[in-house]
Design a protein that fits this description.
Number of helices: 3
Order of helices and strands: EEEHEHH
Shape: globular
Structural class: alpha+beta
Helix content: 25-40%
Distance between the termini: 35 Å
Largest sheet: 4 strands, mixed
Number of strands: 4
Length: 168
């Protein structure tokens, strides 16, 4: 995996043309050894999360995700994007959403109680400390993750600084 090239995709020049899709487990436990699952889509032109679903297991979450994706775009009266970037089309490191997940993890989630550091993080600031694990109620994790998505979507776009990601 170390020597496989990353995917080389030309970045989209407008919002609504390409979605990057992936699952993730936010770094919090709701019970000992148990973390919830999210399945998200981020529009690569606007950098905004346009779909998200969550659950206690991966079972059925992908089907729920695609249903919610169609519902969201229909409700917002937007055409579905003409491209999807997912693991079936790229290796896991080639998906752009992975980089956004890193920012989400260290800029937003790290500030919340119960955040779990990666065991072998390269940056010292992101390494595991000797503190005891904190179990966070499931509903609080969900609420925090949804708030992070809202904050992310309403933050300034990386290129068009005078507009939020959602506005782009």
């Amino acid at each position: 995996q170390k020597f496989k090239p990353y995917g080389k995709i030309t970045p989209p020049d407008h919002a609504g043309s390409l979605l990057s899709i992936d699952d993730r487990q936010p770094p919090f436990e709701y019970d000992t050894g148990k973390r919830l699952w999210f399945y998200n889509a981020i529009d690569l032109g606007s950098e905004a999360f346009t779909c998200w679903v969550y659950g206690k297991s991966k079972e059925g979450i992908i089907l729920d995700f695609y249903r919610q994706l169609v519902r969201n775009y229909a409700e917002w009266n937007l055409p579905l994007p003409d491209g999807l970037e997912c693991e079936s089309s790229l290796n896991s490191r080639g998906k752009r959403i992975e980089r956004y997940y890193g920012t989400l993890r260290y800029k937003y989630e790290k500030k919340r109680e119960g955040w779990l550091a990666r065991p072998f993080a390269l940056a010292e600031a992101n390494q595991k400390r000797s503190e005891k694990k904190v179990i966070v109620p499931y509903s609080e994790i969900v609420e925090g993750c949804l708030r992070d998505i809202w904050l992310w979507n309403n933050a300034p776009h990386s290129i068009i600084k005078n507009m939020s990601r959602w506005d782009v």
